[in-house]
Structures are given as C-alpha cells and as structure tokens.
Write a structure and sequence with these properties.
CATH architecture of the largest domain in chain B: 3-Layer(aba) Sandwich
Largest interface: A-B, 25 and 28 residues
Number of helices of chain B: 16
Oligomer: heterodimer
Strand content of chain A: 5-15%
Radius of gyration of chain B: 23 Å
Distance between the termini of chain A: 82 Å
Helix content of chain A: 55-70%
Shape of chain A: globular
Structural class of chain B: alpha+beta
Largest sheet of chain A: 5 strands, mixed
Number of strands of chain B: 22
Strand content of chain B: 15-25%
Number of domains of chain A: 3
Number of helices of chain A: 24
Helix content of chain B: 25-40%
CATH superfamily of the largest domain in chain B: FAD-linked oxidase, cap domain/gating helix
Distance between the termini of chain B: 31 Å
Strand order of the largest sheet of chain A: 3-5-4-6-7
Strand order of the largest sheet of chain B: 15-12-14-13-19-20-17-22
CATH class of the largest domain in chain A: Mainly Alpha
Structural class of chain A: alpha/beta
CATH topology of the largest domain in chain A: Glutathione S-transferase Yfyf (Class Pi), Chain A, domain 2
Largest sheet of chain B: 8 strands, antiparallel
Number of domains of chain B: 4
Chain lengths: 437, 452
C-alpha cells in the first residue's frame, strides 16, 4: 500500500544499512527463547524493508511481530553496522499506529493515562482498596491478584499500590539547613504510586548531602510506555507537559531514580521535537540538567562518604536496559554500593542482560517474559548474594516475581535504598558514640 | 504460492503449525548474510525428526519442488536463498545433543544445535569441539558441515571436515543414508562422509552428525601485535611458522580493515598502525609460556610497534570482536564490497599481501586484506563507490589479477563471481555425482554445481 510505504519512507536509508549478518541473534533475549527470525531485529527490519519496497503492507501480522521487542537495545549495541534497530522498531510501531490505530487495550489504558487527574485518582483508589484486590505474600512489596484482571496474568507477583502516593507524603519543597543546591525530583509513576520506599530513600540521601528537593505536584508520566508503543503524538503531550512543569521552578538540576524516566528527559524529549526548533531548545535545556540519582550523587554532588555506617550484606546488581544502554550509567551505582562499609559486592553473569520486564512487554507477553526472567534468576542464584540492587521499578517487580517462583529468599531494592540504610546506620552509630563520650 | 493440496499434504507430515506460508513470515526467510540476493520461498517447513525430513523430501521430489535447508542463516555467499522458489526446510527444531561418548571422544548431535551450545555441554567433560567459525553463537553444526566451514582455529586444529566422523543424510528421494561412525577407521571405498561435508545442501539433508572431540587445552594466551608495515607483519608470520610454533590462530588485518573498524578497533592499537596480527596459543601451560616467549622475541626482531597480551577474557574478547567485525565494518563504510577468498600456501602469505597492494594501486582502487594468514587464507575485498561506473571495470580487472596472483603463488581463488569452468573434468565429475543423487535437481538448485 502506498500509504504504508510513505509512513516508513524517512527510515529507508537507516534500514538499508542492515546487512542481515544476524549478529543481533547472538544477544536478543527474545530470540534466545523463540528462535524465529521475527523475534530478532534482522527479521523485523526485513519486514519494514518489504513494506518500503511495496512487497508487503502494515498488517495485523506486522503489528504482532513489531510488538515482540523488549526495547532492551542489546541489538543496537552489538550491531557492527551501527543500525539503531531499537529506534527503528519503535518507528515501525508508530507507522502501525498511524496505519491501523492502537491496540484496543493500550488505547483504553492510554486514555486513562492521558487524563492526569483521573489517573492520579484511580491509582490512589487502587492504593486504598489494594488490600481487597491483592493477596499478601511473605516477602515485602509482593502481592498476588485475588481476582482476574484484564491483561494481567494471575500467576504474576505484583507489588501493592501505596496507600498514600509519595508526592502526597511530602511538601512540595523539602528544605535543608544549608542548601548547596536545589533539585527537582521527577518521581515517575512506579515510585510515586508503588515503590514509595525508593522515593523516600532518594529524599533522605539528598537531604543528607544538603540538597534541597522540589517535587512539582503537576508532574506526570514520563511518556516512555506510550512512546515505545508507537503513539508519538501522545508521548509529545506528556513530554511538553513535563517540560513546562519543570520550567516553572528555579532548579539547578533535575533527578530521577528510574533509568527509563531519566532516558525520557535526557534523550527522548529532545529527539521527539526534532522538527520543532522552539520545543527542541526547551527540551534540550531540561535534558542538560537531568541526571539519574546514582550518576548525580557520584558525578555532581560527590556524595558524603564520611557518615556511612556498616551494612554487612552481600549484594549483586542488575543493570536495567535503559540504564546500561539507554543512558549508559553502570559504574556510578557500583561505586555507591562499593563505598558502603561492610557491603560485599559480587557481579552476576550478564548483569546488563534484560530481565524480561520490558515495560508493558511482560504484560502482553508474560510467557516469553518469564523465560527471559528465568535466566536472570539463575544468574542471581549463582552469586549467593543476599540482596539484588537495581535502578528500575519494573525490573524490581519482575525480578521479585522470578525469585518468588524459584522460592529464593533474596529481596530486590534500589541502589539508593542501600545507601540510605548505610546513612541511617551511620547516624545511629554517631548517636551511640556521642552518648558514650 | 504453493498449491493448497500440497500445503495440506506437508501439514499431514509435520503438523499444520509447522508449515508456514504467511507472507510476513516468508519475507523473513528470503535472505541470508549475503546482501543483494532475495527471493520469497513458497513455504517454510519445520520437520521434527529424520522420518519427517524423509517424507517431506519424498513428496517434494515427486512434485519437483526445490528444497533449501536452513539453520539460522548466518552464512555468506547466498548459499541458502531460495533463488528458484520452493521450500525452506528449517532445521531449528532438530537441535538435540543426542550423546556425548567420552570414551571414544565423540558426540552425536542433530544439525540445528548451536556450536556454542555443543561446546558448553562437552566442556563439562573437559572436551572441546575445536572448529570456531567466528559466529559460534549463531552458527549451527549442520551449517558448518554443509559449508565445511573454515574457522579461526584451523591453523592448529584443521577445518570442520577433520571433525566429522559420521553423518545421517536424507537423500533427494527420501532414502536415509548413514555414513561413517565412531570408529576412527570407518570407511572402505568412497568416503561419503567427506563427500557430504561441504556439499552445501545439494546432495542431501544432514539430519545427524557424529563429531570428533578433543581434550580442552590447559591454558590459552592471546596477543595483539601492531606493525608499521605489512611486510614486517608477513615476515613475522613466516618466522613464527619456520620456528615450528603452531598457534591455534594467527589472524591478519591490514590498514584498510583497521581504519574501517573505527571505534571497534582494539583501543590498544596506536593510530599509525598499518598491519595487525592476533595470535592465540593454547596447550600445556609450560609449552604455552615457552612459545609466547619465542613469539615475543620474533615479533621484536620484526620491528613490532606494539604488543598487547590479553590478561583477561574481556580483553581477549575485545581483540576477537574487532576481527569478527571486519566484514561488516568494511561493508558499512563502502557502497560496494566484493569479498573474495584467496587461499595460498602459508609460506607465501606475505607475498600475496604485497601483490594485493600493488594491484590496488595499479587499478586505483581500495582493496582490504584480512584473514587467517597462518593458514594462508586471505580475503582480498575490493571496495568502491557505486556512483562511479568506471570503477566497475577496474574492479573486475583487479579481481582477475588477484585470481591470477593467487594461482601463480600455488593457491586457489574463490568468489561468487566464478569463472566459467564448464567442460572441465572437475565440473564433469561434480555434475555426475549431483545428478545421480538428485536427478530432479530439487536440492538447493543454485547454479553452483552446474558451473562447478
């Protein structure tokens, strides 16, 4: 179809760089499980090529094949020809949305997501009525569904919604005595509504380092789930809203504690507005200020290591895809962990390999997501670590699901939670010492 | 398009969900690693075992439908593209490791198993399957046998054919042939195992392979050496081999290749380097150390600029990743790439590089040279821009001159731009074999055999 062809015209050159060598087969987590050409970048690019050559159209089969991608960027990192396959697959999804519209379930979810107030209200309600719909498991932050829910596999271990979202637990501005800088905290949805423990740890640690924290109440979803699904127009609405929201404050920096949210601010927003010079400039100004929390503490704040207390545990680390290949922040979280007295750090095999969560991928393709996850869990088990540290809420939930299935005792936390813990122990020890003296 | 009654008939053999005919799926199997060739198959059939392969072939033969065996499509030279339409026989379901026989140092596998997966299993017994085509994570044993794949360890360990003890092959009409076996001496008369190895899917479909295993080496050391000119590098290679040292690998990259690698070039190589060698030695620790000392001395005597010994597996991988990225990096930085194989006696490798360089400057072309220099396998690769039409004749000329140079040095030359060899005795013999076994010419009916 001519129309379908035109939808992909702008990526013609980029696609022709693929020489079909199949090196992507070596690293693609989905290909490892399914072993079909359509699972891997080479096959998907050849389909796009066929649409461009007029040999095929954007069909339901096209949609289905393009949906089989966790956006982990491993193929792009491996490609000897420099083909950015992950971005091209998202472009193909955009073409599919233009040609055939969004998947009905996604359409419903995104409509809710688009309305910030309704979204906030729904998730607050979910927090209040959570105990009714979730069954508790012995592990902290792990719940099973009591009743079937559309789109969610009932075997899946989820996390409870917070009774009170993070941003409602704090004032808009969290002051410190001698502020050396003022930062805006972009919480993201998982940390605001589910893993408030991470948000609290981020605030505690920033306060410890004399950083004043501002949490703009109007902030909204970063837009990555919408963007990767191919709904570029809606993603731009989110981007513009967040850019405007943070522009209203006088901030030295912006921090986020999730790899994907940080990637949205740092990389995706400026690219989304590539054909809108005014918005692009504003997006770039925001991007320049934005840091992931570990990166921020190590590279900018040079966090205070004198007040750390002993945390005697063995920790291994999972690098989320968007941390490792999206914003390329892997050394800083390790530096933080290794600075904690008493903490023993052990690397797991393939630490930066996708855990299978892939945002909404694990909702739509739970069985494949489980298979990918099994490999991660086996690598975790081999380390014999007490705790897994990571920097992404979705990874945390998916890995906890895997650990529960394997009946393994480890918990999964954010890197910053361990740093917070160490500061707390440090403070208690100081109090004890001062009492003795 | 395949007739519905045939689709039904094949579905009865392998199950309806293993006969794929959706256009979107066919498009994904219309190519291999060789750019520029693409043709839609009519159906993709995924058999589960030898019996199913046999029944599929019997039917295809009766109906005269072309059949192309395929593993994961990481091969070069357009070997499995369905150029005449027909069936792609996808062997991915036949990927079991059937037996590891440690007493006889042999393993029996199905063709669809990845080389890396076989090696992972035999490693538990302290054994290795030595041939490493450079793409062990995506290459299958079936593909290696069909192509008699050369590999980066062949200097010391030989090529794929030296590790194939026996095969099970389904012939064009569905007959199941067994060749060779686990006995070291296992053939009287024609060596059919050797005939099938390298037959590129034109004589039968490989359904089982008995491979020979070797004890894993105690130690492995890898180094990267950079030279200011290729003559020094070539002389160093000759000196190493003259000194009776047999490295597992001895790889060469010239300045064109190193430049094309760009950021993928090993960071330890200084920018003004014109030739690089990757040398890997394995074996008993004492011997390896001794050989490394001798090699270092030889490199120094040949004006080496830089020697980096990999201390960790990660450093070693960085050297290899550079070498493995050579083909794709050259393809990326040039419009048109004519890659060839020039195989010369290893003692003449430096002379060949010298000839390639003068052919390049005479024809005003860029020609890259890299390859398994220790075995005398070089890949002269002619690079040019499509927009300048005059270059095509220069390139064809250069191709002929490289071919002549290789023959003059006592070697052979292969490219997909083969010369016409019809009427030659070799072609006559090959065709006689092919058409006796496959009279309807259904098995991978590329013109390869017709032309020799």
């Amino acid at each position: 179809m001519i129309k379908d062809k035109e939808l992909l015209r702008d990526i013609n050159d980029a696609i022709s760089n693929c020489m079909k060598c199949g090196n992507c087969m070596e690293v693609c987590p989905i290909y490892k499980e399914l072993k079909t050409e359509s699972a891997v970048a080479r096959g998907k690019l050849s389909l796009m090529e066929a649409v461009l050559n007029g040999n095929s159209e954007i069909t339901a089969g096209f949609d289905k094949r393009m949906s089989m991608c966790v956006s982990c960027k491993a193929c792009t990192a491996k490609c000897p020809c420099g083909v950015k396959a992950d971005e091209l697959i998202i472009r193909a999804r955009q073409a599919a949305v233009s040609s055939r519209g969004l998947h009905p379930v996604k359409n419903m979810v995104f409509k809710l997501l688009k309305n910030r107030r309704l979204f906030d209200f729904s998730l607050r309600m979910a927090g209040l009525f959570g105990p009714l719909s979730f069954k508790k498991l012995p592990r902290p932050m792990a719940r099973l569904l009591r009743f079937p829910m559309p789109g969610l596999d009932r075997r899946r271990v989820l996390a409870p919604f917070a009774a009170t979202p993070l941003r409602s637990q704090y004032p808009e501005v969290i002051k410190v005595d001698n502020p050396k800088m003022r930062v805006g905290f972009f919480t993201g949805c998982t940390i605001n509504y589910i893993y408030t423990d991470v948000g609290k740890a981020v605030i505690n640690v920033l306060k410890k380092n004399n950083v004043e924290v501002v949490m703009p109440p109007m902030q909204h979803c970063c837009g990555i789930p919408v963007f990767t699904s191919g709904d570029i127009e809606l993603a731009k609405v989110f981007a513009k809203h967040n850019i405007e929201t943070f522009e209203r404050y006088k901030l030295d920096y912006i921090v986020a504690s999730c790899g994907s949210c940080t990637m949205a601010f740092k990389k995706e927003y400026p690219e989304m507005f590539h054909d809108d010079p005014e918005m692009k400039e504003r997006a770039e100004a925001i991007a320049k200020k934005t840091y992931e929390i570990s990166e921020f503490l190590v590279d900018v704040v040079k966090f205070d290591q004198s007040k750390l207390g002993e945390v005697n545990i063995t920790v291994t680390m999972h690098d989320p895809c968007h941390m490792a290949r999206g914003i390329k922040v892997t050394s800083q979280p390790r530096e933080i962990l290794q600075s904690i007295p008493g903490l023993k750090f052990v690397e797991m095999k393939d630490a930066d390999r996708c855990c299978g969560a892939g945002g909404s991928f694990s909702v739509a393709h739970y069985d494949v997501a489980l298979k990918i996850n099994n490999r991660k869990i086996e690598n975790i088990a081999d380390t014999k670590a007490d705790i897994v540290a990571t920097s992404c809420g979705m990874c945390r939930m998916h890995i906890i699901d895997g650990l529960e299935r394997y009946k393994l005792p480890q918990d999964v936390v954010h890197v910053i939670q361990l740093l917070d813990k160490s500061y707390q122990v440090g403070a208690e020890t100081t109090v004890k010492k001062s009492k003795v003296s | 398009m395949m007739r519905q009654d045939l689709i039904d008939a094949f579905s009865r053999i392998v199950g309806a969900n293993h006969v794929l005919t959706a256009n979107d799926t066919l498009l994904e199997y219309a190519y291999d690693k060789d750019p520029g060739f693409s043709r839609l198959p009519d159906a993709i059939i995924e058999p589960a075992d030898t019996a199913e392969v046999s029944r599929v072939l019997a039917l295809a033969n009766a109906e005269k439908i072309p059949v192309y065996p395929r593993g994961y499509g990481s091969n070069l030279y357009n070997a499995i593209t369905p150029v005449e339409g027909g069936i792609i026989l996808l062997l991915r379901r036949m990927n079991s490791l059937l037996e590891i026989d440690t007493a006889n140092l042999a393993a029996t596998v199905e063709p669809g198993i990845f080389v890396a997966d076989l090696n992972k299993e035999v490693k538990k017994f302290g054994l290795i399957f030595p041939p490493d085509p450079g793409t062990i994570f995506t290459a299958t044993i079936g593909g290696m046998v069909a192509q008699n794949a050369t590999n980066i360890r062949s200097l010391k360990y030989g090529s794929t054919k030296h590790y194939i003890m026996g095969l099970e092959v389904v012939l064009a009409d569905g007959k199941i042939l067994k060749t060779g076996g686990k006995n070291v001496k296992d053939v009287a008369g024609y060596d059919l195992t050797k005939l099938m190895t390298g037959s590129q899917g034109t004589l039968g479909i490989i359904t089982k392979v008995i491979v020979k295993l070797m004890p894993a080496p105690e130690t492995q050391k890898c180094l990267l050496a950079g030279f200011k000119n290729f003559v020094d590098a070539g002389k160093a290679v000759k000196a190493i081999l003259d000194d009776k040292i047999v490295p597992a690998t001895l790889e060469f990259m010239d300045s064109v290749t190193i430049q094309a690698l760009g950021s993928k070039a090993p960071s330890s190589l200084p920018p003004d380097i014109k030739a690089a060698l990757i040398i890997e030695i394995d074996g008993i620790t004492k011997v390896v150390e001794n050989d490394m000392a001798k090699i270092s001395a030889i490199l120094q005597a040949h004006n080496v600029q830089q020697v980096t010994v990999a201390e960790t597996e990660i450093e070693q991988d960085a050297f290899w990743n550079a070498r493995r990225a050579a083909i794709t990096s050259l393809a990326k930085s040039n419009d048109i790439m004519w890659m060839t194989d020039a195989i010369i006696p290893r003692s003449k490798a430096a002379d060949m590089v010298d000839k390639i360089t003068s052919i390049a400057s005479k024809n005003k072309l860029t020609i890259a040279a890299f390859g398994h220099i220790g075995d005398g396998v070089l890949h002269p690769t002619i690079l040019f821009n499509a927009s300048d039409k005059s270059l095509i004749s220069h390139a064809s000329n250069a191709m002929k001159e490289i071919s002549a140079a290789a023959l003059e040095l006592g070697g052979i030359f292969c490219s997909r731009f083969q010369e016409d060899r019809s009427g030659q005795p070799e072609t006559y013999a090959k065709q006689a074999i092919k058409f006796s076994l496959d009279p309807n010419n259904i098995l991978n009916p590329v013109n390869r055999v017709k032309e020799g």
